[in-house]
Write a structure and sequence with these properties.
With 629 residues, the protein is of the alpha+beta class. Helix content is 52%, strand content 18%. The protein folds into four domains: 235 residues, no CATH class; 90 residues, Calcium-transporting ATPase, cytoplasmic transduction domain A (Distorted Sandwich); 132 residues, HAD superfamily/HAD-like (Rossmann fold), CATH 3.40.50; 119 residues, Calcium-transporting ATPase, cytoplasmic domain N, CATH 3.40.1110. The protein has 22 helices and 22 strands. The chain is elongated, with a radius of gyration of 32 Å. It binds adenosine-5'-diphosphate and magnesium ion. Adenosine-5'-diphosphate binds next to helix 11, helix 13, strand 14, strand 15 and strand 16.
């Protein structure tokens, strides 16, 4: 099952096996091809050849696993059972087991290939971009359009789109996705950066060296492939199960083969040995081995079709167990589309001046507040060249930004930033979110920005409640005055405002611990701006589509769209997947139990056992495919 599956090769082997089998039949005494000189064992030889051709994978796999010290698995069961059948001259049955196993495997391969390709198709559509300097301005293009020698800029949290050499700026880059190196590396002018790294805490400009960028799209496809590999985790569970189950079955079979003939006079060993072999064939947990990982995989594939990327089977389990959902406010429950509502000025400053200073200071911030200020400045014709107008930019997460603009130190941010910078000010809270603008330690004005809840945020909370998740928490760095009305309108049960990113993390850790104590899981949903640590800290970290690449990297679940209502959908899908997986397990074990009894009693023959096993496997696979819907 590990090697790449090629249908054509399998068919060739099965064809050769069929030919050998027909040859064997026709060489039997009295048949067409049995001249007198033919030795009596010739047909047997042909049958054994047919068996080896059909069953080579199973036999080799069993041998390999034994060599690795993993003796008891389903391959071992099948090998022992069929070799035993050969030993007692039941060639057709030995061959039948192998052929049916092959058919089951082909079906499984086809099903998982189907869901894999649908995942790939979906992901290939995700846009990727490079910010290039063209004719003095920064333009966003597809990395494929970049040429060697192009100057490009990477903002905090973004992927480096192209290999290149840094010419300006300094930051830590995370190369773990490229090199597996877990420690971020500091880069500055003269250093090399590789496409696929993530700029963590600063922005850099670089000159492109190689143009074949590894796009974010390519990376996400890889992430999902990783997730597919993590089905190994579900498979490991099955392996643990077979490691206990198989020796028991083998012991039972041995007892059935030898005990009755030894203890009860007149019982033939061959008769009981056959029953034991039937038992071994029946007990082979193929259906389980195939359907459990496939069920999870289909669950992930079906979710991916809806723009919900699940990074592993255990994430589905986490979703299904969720009891608490923690939301970041801005960009997650609210649209994050801030709009400048009003500008107030202090004596000596004009509205446009305050706005232009703020826009310059915010030129490299990815915070949605920054975007709204830049937009407003552009609308008023103020921001021409603003990106280069500021230098020495420092972003204080949860507070604001500091930068030098035209030789003056500009601070733009909330009350906390004013305290940090010791800017004298009086009043603090208003409707909406206030961005104070200070110049050289003096308050120059205030820009008030407002944001609205997303259209489906309230529905999301209601749907979560309907799923039994009644504890919903909103964490925000925004002030309580602007956060409270939002929480109330959405039906959020708990609110914590004015938090720094590290406070959010602490709150979240507390919630995770409380929920775990009640045997539940905690989900954190963020938009990826400043909340990568929280995504990692929660049992299930959910990043929304527009978030930064760094967040996508750290999240367990990525919602490709900006609709929070995809979360309850993901939870419903996860629960459905678990039901499907458990059905597969129950179906498999129940059929096994019935046929084990029939086999031990000598009622079921090996053929029936094989058909029952393959039948259950196919049923379980078809059932697992339901998780795709
Ligand atoms: P949220 O929890 O709403 O996502 P953040 O932690 O990102 O909020 O930010 C909290 C607060 O910090 C914002 O409401 C804003 O007042 C201030 N802030 C953060 N970044 C900036 C910025 N780039 N410009 C202005 N203010 C900012
Ligand atoms: Mg945020």
């Amino acid at each position: 099952m590990e090697a790449r599956f090629s249908l054509r090769r399998e068919l060739a082997f099965l064809g050769a096996a069929a030919a050998a089998f027909v040859l064997g039949l026709s060489m039997r005494p009295g048949a067409a091809l049995s001249p007198a000189w033919l030795p009596a064992f010739a047909p047997d030889l042909a049958f054994v050849l047919a068996y080896l051709l059909a069953g080579r994978d199973v036999l080799l796999g069993a041998a390999r696993n034994i060599a690795r010290g993993r003796v008891f698995d389903e391959l071992f069961l099948m090998s022992v059972a069929t070799l035993g059948a050969i030993a007692i001259g039941r060639y057709e049955e030995a061959l039948g087991v192998m052929v049916f196993y092959k058919i089951g495997e082909a079906l499984q391969e086809k099903a998982s290939e189907r869901s894999r390709s649908s995942v790939r198709e979906l992901l290939a559509r995700r846009p990727s971009m490079a910010r290039l300097r063209r004719a003095g301005a920064w333009v966003t293009v597809d990395p494929g359009e970049a040429a060697e020698g192009d100057e490009y800029m990477v903002m905090p949290g973004e992927w480096v789109p192209l290999d290149g050499e840094v010419v300006e700026g300094e930051c830590f880059v995370d190369a773990s996705s490229l090199t597996g190196e877990s420690l971020p590396r500091r880069v500055g002018p003269g250093d090399e950066v590789l496409a696929g790294c993530v700029a963590i805490d600063g922005s850099i400009t670089a000159i492109a060296r190689k143009t074949e960028g590894r796009s974010a799209a390519a990376r996400i496809v890889e992430l999902v492939e990783e997730a597919v590999k993590s089905k190994a985790k579900a498979a490991r569970l099955v392996t643990r199960f077979t490691a206990v189950y198989t020796p028991i079955v083998v012991g039972l079979a041995a007892a059935i083969a030898f005990l009755p003939p030894l203890l009860v006079p007149g019982q033939a060993l061959s008769d009981w040995a056959y029953r034991a072999l039937v038992l071994l064939v029946i007990s082979c947990p193929c259906a389980l081995v195939v359907s459990v990982p496939l069920g999870y995989f289909c669950g992930m594939g079906g979710a991916a079709k809806r723009g919900i990327l699940v990074r592993g089977a255990e994430v589905l389990d986490g979703l299904a167990k969720a009891r608490t959902v923690v939301f970041d406010k801005t960009g997650t429950l609210t649209a994050g589309n801030f709009r400048v509502a009003s500008i107030e000025t202090e004596p000596g400053f004009a509205e446009d001046e305050v706005l232009a200073l703020a826009a310059a200071a915010e030129s490299r911030s990815r915070h949605p507040i920054a975007a709204s200020i830049r937009r407003e400045a552009a609308a008023r014709g103020l921001s021409i060249g603003a990106e280069d107008a500021a230098s020495g930019i420092v972003e204080r997460p949860g507070a604001g930004v500091l930068a030098y603009v035209g030789g003056r130190l500009v601070a733009a941010g909330n009350d906390r930033l004013l305290h940090l910078e010791k800017v004298p000010h009086d009043r603090c809270e208003a409707e909406g979110t206030t961005v104070n603008v200070a110049v050289d330690g003096q308050l120059a004005g205030r820009v008030t920005v407002v944001d609205e809840p997303k259209a489906d945020s309230a529905r999301t909370i209601a749907e979560l409640a309907a799923l039994g998740i009644t504890r919903t928490v909103m964490l925000t760095g925004d002030c309580a005055a602007s956060a409270e009305p939002v929480a109330k309108a959405l039906g959020i049960t708990e609110l914590a405002a004015a938090l720094l990113p590290e406070d959010k993390l602490e709150r979240l850790a507390g919630l995770v611990a409380e929920t775990r104590a009640a045997r539940g899981a905690t989900i954190f949903v963020g938009d990826g701006v400043n909340d990568a640590p929280s995504l990692a800290r929660a049992d299930v970290g959910v990043a929304m589509g527009a978030g930064s690449d760094a967040a996508v990297e750290g999240a367990d679940l990525v919602l490709m769209t900006d609709e929070p209502s995809r979360l309850p959908e993901a939870i419903r899908r996860a629960r459905h997947t678990r039901v499907v997986v458990f059905q597969g397990i129950a179906l498999c074990l129940a059929t096994k139990a019935v046929f084990l009894v029939l086999g031990a009693m000598g009622i079921a023959v090996m053929w029936e056992a094989v058909i029952a096993d393959v039948g259950v496997a196919i049923l379980a696979i078809l059932n697992a495919l339901r998780a795709l819907r």
